[in-house]
Amino acid sequence: MGGMQTVLLAAVDPRIQRQMIALAGAALPSIIAESHEGNVARYRRATLETLGWSVDDLRDRMAQAMRVEGDGNMSIDPGELAPSLDAKRTLMIISLLDQVVPTRNQMDLWKLAGMPEAYFLPAGHY
To answer: How far, in Å, CA of 98 to CA of 59, rounded?
Structure first.
């Protein structure tokens, strides 16, 4: 979550001049719905079983919960805030075999951030 928190902080705090974002992705509800990370998978399974939701229900409800109160047009999802970053002052680390934060989500974040300089690692999340 550190990389995603970096996006959020850098997007809203003008004191942040440069940022390095590692293994973070856009569309957090999608990441939660698809991640193979043990704690996330257990949370997802327990939530779906307890509430009787589908994976699509989970995605939709998480996206709704991430909307900023009083402004239905803003979300705290890293992908929605990434365009606020200065690509010239951003470095990203993207893992090409990641099953915790799927590579697709990392690539989406990279594109939304203006395709800053990036290192693409042939590795998983850990």
So the answer is: 20
